[in-house]
Design goal:
Number of strands: 7
Distance between the termini: 15 Å
Shape: elongated
Number of domains: 3
Strand content: 5-15%
Length: 507
């Protein structure tokens, strides 16, 4: 609850950032070397070829750690697949280093293409898996948005790449691979759109932005590389490598952000913001590519029709986005009613238990502690009998408001039933939890509830404990309840730990 009691986890958090720091350092070192170095093309190619497997292995390591620390099943599966994609990529990059830098050959296809192809497929499945599932109307809306993106991106890729690739005199396998990479980029764009539209709760906004930004940067760099390769204008160690490597760094940081952040317990469904641009982007890609292919003569003949279709497509996509916004607003309202207690503004019992379970599982995986406080308003029935039920409601609202003021973003606080509240505080043990409980007791004593101009005296009894081993939530709550019983037996208005003597203040 108070921000100060989260400092105990600082060394663990700093330790966990080591791989991310190395990843950033490798990229910065390569970028500085690339900009300042005047080495020949051969050396630049060798350094770039060697950097790729190193960065790929670091990203693979980060993705696997995100898999280990994730609690949601889809998050665990998605990051495991992403780690596999990066492993395939690193292996392919290692093979290509051997072929190009050691043997001084540039065959197409090569043994590295097996790993590259596998990495595209694995990455697509990984990103798709990371998204939250949709059902019913949401699934149909998602399908329509994705179809718009796929159609628009196909038109764009066709005019930029596929039309020229398929017209080249190449062998069948070469043509399949040459076409397969742009198609793989299209799959990544589609997966990015799906991830943005589905916005899973187990990905923080920062992790989501890094992951999607990396995917888009990778696909764009691939398109530019293919265009340059068609004209024999690309050599290894070119400026495009900064974008490819930068995209991989974004993925590694996204995994690191997911691993370090405490997954949100519950959150209202997000209002449509950036997601509204997804169908509009698909329309713009398709018709924009058509317009770029028209010369002056054909524009006079077809340009007005294409522009008219573009306007109609944008209007239809905007209308679809407006309907989706209203639909999501309604879902958000239903979600809030189902998970948030109307009187206190805290989580309802079911949502509280689900969130607390998630925090306990995460703590067990990371080896950290979780303090649990069971909070009870002393003599609450007497308050109702003496001052009326409106006064009792006001008391609960005051106590709940103070709980929200003292909580951290990672803490979970909910109404367990009646006048009992539960606070779940990740990253601290029972001793620190007792300090937080003392602060809450002191805050309630300093801010009495006013009813009819008169103060209603209120005190709190709090039982504190912490998680241990792989025990279930029900066992932790039982200990907190036992500590609460002893707090009431010790005169009320105190916080008692399951293994300690009473603590009566926050100092």
């Amino acid at each position: 609850m108070s921000h100060r009691h989260g400092q105990a986890d600082a060394p663990r958090s700093l330790k966990g950032r080591g791989a991310a720091t190395v990843l950033i350092a490798v990229y910065v070192a390569f970028a500085v070397w690339f900009v300042s170095n005047t080495a020949g093309a051969a050396l630049r190619t060798e350094v770039a070829d060697l950097t790729y497997p190193v960065v790929g292995l670091l990203v693979c390591h980060q993705a696997w750690r995100a898999h280990v620390h994730a609690t949601a099943a889809r998050a665990r599966s998605g990051w495991a697949l992403f780690a596999a994609a990066m492993a395939a990529r690193a292996l392919a990059d290692g093979c290509w280093f051997w072929v190009e830098a050691v043997r001084h050959q540039q065959p197409f296809p090569s043994i590295a293409d097996i790993g590259y192809t596998a990495s595209y497929l694995l990455m697509f499945v990984a990103v798709w898996t990371l998204g939250a599932p949709r059902r019913g109307l949401d699934r149909r809306s998602l399908a329509l948005d994705l179809a718009t993106v796929v159609a628009g991106s196909f038109v764009l890729v066709w005019y930029l790449l596929l039309d020229q690739i398929t017209s080249l005199p190449t062998h069948l396998l070469q043509e399949v691979l040459a076409v397969g990479y742009p198609v793989g980029d299209g799959l990544l764009v589609m997966a990015s759109a799906a991830l943005l539209l589905r916005r899973p709760s187990w990905l923080s906004p920062r992790a989501l932005a890094l992951l999607i930004g990396g995917l888009i940067a990778w696909a764009a760099a691939d398109v530019v590389w293919t265009r340059l390769s068609l004209g024999d204008n690309y050599t290894g160690g070119d400026w495009i490598d900064l974008f490819w490597l930068g995209a991989m760094v974004c993925w590694g940081l996204a995994a690191d952000t997911t691993r370090r952040a405490v997954e949100p317990s519950t959150r209202a469904l997000p209002m449509v913001r950036v997601e509204q641009l997804v169908p509009l982007a698909g329309v713009a890609m398709g018709y924009g590519a058509l317009l770029t292919q028209l010369d002056n003569a054909r524009f006079r003949e077809l340009g007005v029709g294409i522009l008219g279709c573009l306007v109609l497509g944008v209007l239809l996509a905007a209308r679809q986005s407006a309907v989706k916004r209203d639909h999501v607003a309604l879902l958000a309202r239903y979600y809030e009613l189902a998970t948030v207690d109307a009187l206190t503004g805290l989580l309802r019992r079911e949502a509280l238990i689900e969130a607390a379970d998630r925090l306990l599982v995460r703590a067990q995986q990371s080896g950290s502690s979780v303090a649990v406080l069971m909070i009870d308003v002393d003599r609450f029935k007497q308050v109702n009998d003496q001052f009326g039920h409106a006064a009792g409601d006001a008391v609960l609202m005051t106590v709940s408001h103070l709980c929200r003021e003292l909580r951290r973003d990672s803490d979970v606080v909910g109404r367990f039933g009646g006048d009992e509240l539960i606070a779940v505080l990740p990253g601290i043990d029972q001793r620190a939890g007792l300090v937080v409980a003392g602060r809450l007791i002191e805050a309630v004593a300093k801010r009495p509830t006013m009813v009819g101009g008169s103060p209603v005296p209120v005190t709190l009894s709090i039982g504190a404990t912490d998680s241990g081993g792989d025990e279930p939530l029900i066992a932790v709550l039982a200990r907190a309840d036992d500590a609460l019983y002893r707090a009431k037996a010790n005169g009320r208005g105190v916080a008692v730990g399951y293994r300690q003597e009473p603590v009566t203040s926050g100092t």
